[in-house]
Design goal:
By secondary structure, the chain is mainly α. The chain has two domains: about 55 residues, no CATH class; about 130 residues, no CATH class.
């Protein structure tokens, strides 16, 4: 059935109100929900959804939020590379510290220039090779090599991005390094206790 010109004008005015005012959208949505099924109109999302979307858009585009995220990632990388140097044996600690500084600079350059590829692809093969090479360097230079290599990989992987695949892999490397460090620290304490020597963690009698 063809509507008259007045009906077409009213319909266009209602659509303009929907687009111009989220509050009006909510009003029309409630009005449409009370109308008979045959007269219900397809309404736009309620104003709450519109305001929520605007909030998250401003959040992700905020320069302050992005600056805090970058500072947090840099702090994470520095903390874990420092932990890798601290876990290294004293005779190799200076060499490990030099390697950590080089890895920090190279990792920052790779995150800026190699992480995002053509078409928006993240974690390009060149970035993966750079990251794995950094872990291999610490594996060869530092001692114990496995723990320091895992800490280095955790620093670069989780510091690059928290989302998969780098985020979970970085967290897994950090967990593995923590477990190995705990086992390495618990071993001499257990041997001292079995020999009858009090541990440094035990209170004196």
């Amino acid at each position: 059935m063809r509507l008259g010109p007045h009906a077409d004008t009213s319909k266009r005015e209602a659509q303009d109100v929907h687009q111009a005012s989220p509050t009006a959208t909510c009003f029309h949505s409630e009005k449409d929900s009370r109308a008979p099924h045959s007269e219900q109109l397809v309404s736009e999302p309620c104003c709450t959804s519109v305001y929520t979307q605007r909030f998250f858009d401003r959040y992700w585009s905020s320069g302050i939020i992005n600056g805090l995220a970058v500072a947090g990632s840099i702090g994470w990388v520095i903390a874990l590379l420092s932990a890798a140097v601290a876990a290294t044996a004293p005779e190799r600690r200076r060499l490990a510290a030099i390697a950590a500084v080089v890895i920090f600079v190279a990792g920052g350059w790779a995150r800026t220039h190699l992480f995002t590829g053509a078409g928006g692809m993240s974690a390009t093969p060149a970035w993966w090779l750079t990251t794995l090479a950094s872990g291999l360097v610490m594996l060869v230079i530092a001692k114990p090599g496995v723990v320091t290599a895992l800490l280095t990989l955790a620093a670069l992987l989780f510091g690059a991005a928290h989302v998969p695949p780098t985020g979970p892999l970085g967290a897994l490397c950090f967990l593995a390094a923590a477990v190995l460090l705990e086992l390495d620290l618990a071993r001499p304490l257990a041997s001292r206790s079995s020999e009858g020597h009090p541990s440094r963690l035990e209170a004196p009698a």
